[in-house]
Amino acid sequence: MNIDTTRFGAIEIAEESIVRMPDGMLGFKSATRFVLLEDRPDTAFKWLQAVDDPALAFIVVNPMEFFPYYEIELSDEEAESLDLGDPSDAVMLTTVTVGTDGNVTTNLLGPVVMNSRTLQAKQMVLQDEQYSAKHKICELPSMDSQRAKAA
After folding, report:
1. Domain 2-141 CATH (choose: 3.40.50.300, 2.30.290.10, 3.40.1260.20, 3.50.30.30)
2. Dihedral angle sign, alpha carbons of residues 82, 133, 23, 66
3. Residue of 97, 93, 136, 100 lying closest to 115 (CA atoms)
4. Cβ of 3: how many Cβ atoms within 10 Å?
5. Phi and psi based region of residue 129 (left: phi greater than 0; alpha: psi -120 to 50; beta: remaining)
6. Where are the domains of the chain?
7. Which residues, in sequence order, are CB contacts of 26 under 8 Å at separation 6+?
8. Three-state secondary structure call for residue 80
9. pLDDT at 99
10. Contacts of residue 100, Cβ cutoff 8 Å, sequence gap at least 6
């Protein structure tokens, strides 16, 4: 299957690689089919690209790569809706934002939980005070500091 994307151009994806999110992403309820793309194989950052909207894509990471202590608890109903009989089938992704201040943050309050076997997924909304919607991952060097190093 071919899809058009703003960032990657026309790409071919396998129908069985489509992540199905019946409820969509927060603020994007009509986007219910996504594909997980690698921009580069040497990075933790991936793209969650909407299949039906070329311009809609989210940078995502597995939060465990940055925060090994991160854990969420799914209700029985949530696990059942994702057909998660085996917890090892669960994959977590969190959206990433690169701020104008150079801070790279991830939304630990709104993880996407995906069944790696069926590719059914749902974005959760947590009420956990130890996490934030802008949990800092790193800070990018400013252009001024890059220029100073080059001089």
Report:
1. 2.30.290.10
2. negative
3. 93
4. 19
5. alpha
6. 2-141
7. 110, 123, 125
8. helix
9. 85
10. none
- Could you tell me the pLDDT band of residue 75, with boundaries at 50, 70 and 90? confident
CB atoms within 10 A of CB 18: 17
**Contact in structure between 18 and 50 (CB atoms under 8 Å):** no
**d(C-alpha 7, C-alpha 141), whole Å:** 24
- Beta-bridge partner residues of 138: 104
Tokens of 90: 């669960």
Report the greatest alpha carbon distance in the chain.
Answer: 58
Q: Which tokens hold the place of 104?
A: 């790279």
Q: How far apart are CA 17 and CA 119, in angstroms?
A: 8
Q: How far is CA 131 from CA 68, 96, 120, in A?
A: 13, 14, 24
Strand partners, 136: 105
User: Which tens digits make up the pLDDT trace of 90-128?
Assistant: 999 999 998 888 889 999 999 999 999 999 999 999 988
The residue behind tokens 């934002």 is 97
Give whole-number Cα distances, 144 to 76, 104, 140, 141, 147, in Å. Answer: 51, 18, 11, 8, 5
Instruction: Tell me if residue 59 falls in helix, strand or coil.
Output: strand
